[in-house]
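Whiteboard transcription, Tuesday session. T.W. wrote the C-alpha cells on the left side:
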C-alpha cells in the first residue's frame, strides 16, 4: 500500500468514526420532533403531504421529498434513529464524490488535502450529525460540483440531468437551495458550464415528481400560505450587513471556527476544575484564530485577481467555481428575509474549501515536513472540537426526553422508554 493510499485510509477512518460516533449521539429537540412526526404521518396514513415543515424565515418547505426520506426508514425500523442511517449514507457518498472530482481536477496531493479538510471539518461533522434538514444538503452540493465539472467543456446529457434534478430537489430539503440556483445561473452566464438542455429538462421533470402533491393542493386551493413572514426579500442588500455576512461565512466555513456550537457546551455553565476550563477556553480561542488563515488565503487570491497582463494569476476552473460560489452566497444572503446562520450556509462548504486546499498544498510543497505537521495538528484540533461538542452539547447528551414530545404522541413510541422528561 502506498503512503498516499494509507493516508486516505487513515483520514477516512478518523473522520468516519468521529462522524458515526457523533451521529449515534444525536438527540431530539423541536426540529427533530417535527421531522419525525412528518415521517410518521407517511407511515401511518400512507399519503404524502404537499408541504414539509416551517422554514427559518417563515413559510413552509414545499414538496414531499423530505417526508419520503424520513418516512421510508421508519417503515423499516420504528426508531428515532432510523432516518439517521440515510443521513449518514448520504454524507459518506458526498465525501466520495467530492474526492473523485477534486482528484480529477487537480492532483493526488491536493485531493488528499481537500478530502482531509472536508472529511474532518467540524462544520461538516457537526451539521451532518444532527437530524435536521441541513444534514441532507451535503450530497446535493457534491452532486452539483460533479455535474458542473463534467459540463465545463462540453454539453453532456447525464450531468445536465443530474443538475436539473439537484436544482428541483434541493428546494424540497431546505431554504438555502437559493445558493445552488444562483451559482448555477452565474456559471451559465459566465460560460463556465455548458448545459445540455434536453437532459436538464428531463432531470428537472424527475426532480419535480415529489412536488405533485404540492401542485395538486395548489390547484385545489387547499395549500396553506408558504410566504416568508420574517422580514422581506432583499432586506440584506438594504441593511448591508446581512449580505456581507454571506462573505464572512464563506471565509469561516473552511476554518475550525464553529464557535456557535462550541460555546453551547454545558461545561461553560457548570462548575468544573480550573485546568479543564482553561483547556476548553484555549481550544475555543484556537478554533477562532484559525479564521486568520482564511483571511490570508482570501488576500492572496484577491491580489492575484487584481493583477493585470503577464503577472495576472490564471485561476483553474475549480478556483473559478469557488469564486462564483462566494458571490452566490453573498447574493443569497442579500435576498434572504433574515440574517444567515451557520446551518443555512453549510450547503457552500464544498466550494469554500477549494481555495483553502489549493493554498495549503502550495505551502506544504514549499516548506515540507514542518507544514505537514502543522496541517495534521490543524485537522486533529478540529476532531478534538467535535469530541468536546459531542460530550458537552445538549443536542448529543440524551439526558431527558423533551416535554415537546407530549404534543406529538406518534413520536413518543420512537424514543427510548426509560428516560425521564425534561424539567420545566
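and on the right, the sequence the group agreed on:
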Amino acid at each position: 500500500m502506498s503512503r498516499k493510499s494509507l493516508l486516505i485510509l487513515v483520514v477516512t477512518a478518523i473522520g468516519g468514526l468521529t462522524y458515526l460516533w457523533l451521529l449515534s449521539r444525536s438527540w431530539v429537540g423541536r426540529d427533530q420532533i417535527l421531522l419525525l412526526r412528518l415521517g410518521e404521518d407517511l407511515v401511518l396514513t400512507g399519503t404524502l403531504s404537499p408541504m414539509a415543515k416551517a422554514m427559518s424565515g417563515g413559510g413552509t418547505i414545499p414538496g414531499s421529498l423530505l417526508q419520503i426520506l424520513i418516512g421510508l426508514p421508519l417503515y423499516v425500523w420504528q426508531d428515532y434513529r432510523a432516518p439517521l442511517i440515510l443521513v449518514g449514507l448520504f454524507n459518506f457518498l458526498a465525501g466520495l464524490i467530492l474526492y473523485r472530482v477534486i482528484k480529477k481536477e487537480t492532483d493526488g496531493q491536493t485531493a488528499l488535502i481537500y478530502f482531509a479538510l472536508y472529511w474532518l471539518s467540524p462544520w461538516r461533522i457537526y451539521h451532518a450529525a444532527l437530524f435536521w434538514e441541513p444534514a441532507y444538503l451535503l450530497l446535493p452540493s457534491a452532486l452539483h460540483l460533479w455535474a458542473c465539472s463534467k459540463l465545463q467543456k462540453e454539453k453532456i446529457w447525464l450531468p445536465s440531468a443530474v443538475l436539473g434534478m439537484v436544482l428541483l430537489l434541493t428546494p424540497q430539503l431546505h431554504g438555502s437551495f437559493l445558493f445552488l440556483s444562483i451559482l448555477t445561473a452565474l456559471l451559465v452566464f459566465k460560460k463556465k458550464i455548458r448545459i445540455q438542455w434536453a437532459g436538464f429538462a428531463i432531470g428537472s421533470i424527475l426532480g419535480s415528481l415529489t412536488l405533485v402533491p404540492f401542485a395538486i393542493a395548489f390547484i385545489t386551493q387547499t395549500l396553506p400560505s408558504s410566504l416568508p413572514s420574517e422580514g422581506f426579500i432583499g432586506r440584506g442588500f438594504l441593511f448591508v450587513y446581512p449580505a456581507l455576512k454571506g462573505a464572512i461565512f464563506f471565509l469561516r466555513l473552511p476554518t475550525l471556527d464553529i464557535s456557535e456550537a462550541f460555546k453551547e457546551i454545558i461545561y461553560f455553565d457548570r462548575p468544573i476544575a480550573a485546568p479543564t476550563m482553561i483547556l476548553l477556553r484555549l481550544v475555543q480561542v484556537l478554533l477562532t484564530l484559525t479564521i486568520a488563515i482564511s483571511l490570508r488565503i482570501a488576500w492572496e487570491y484577491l491580489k492575484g485577481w487584481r493583477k493585470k497582463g503577464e503577472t495576472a494569476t490564471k485561476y483553474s476552473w475549480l478556483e473559478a467555481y469557488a469564486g462564483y460560489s462566494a458571490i452566490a452566497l453573498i447574493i443569497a444572503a442579500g435576498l434572504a428575509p433574515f440574517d444567515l446562520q451557520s446551518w443555512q450556509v453549510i450547503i457552500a462548504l464544498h466550494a469554500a474549501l477549494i481555495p483553502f486546499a489549493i493554498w495549503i498544498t502550495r505551502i506544504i510543497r514549499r516548506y515540507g515536513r514542518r507544514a505537514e505537521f502543522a496541517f495534521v495538528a490543524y485537522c486533529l484540533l478540529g476532531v478534538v472540537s467535535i469530541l468536546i461538542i459531542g460530550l458537552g452539547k445538549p443536542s448529543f447528551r440524551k439526558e431527558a426526553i423533551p416535554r415537546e414530545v407530549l404534543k406529538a404522541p406518534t413520536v413518543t413510541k420512537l424514543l427510548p422508554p426509560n428516560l425521564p422528561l425534561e424539567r420545566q
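Someone added at the bottom: The two ends are 57 Å apart (CA to CA).
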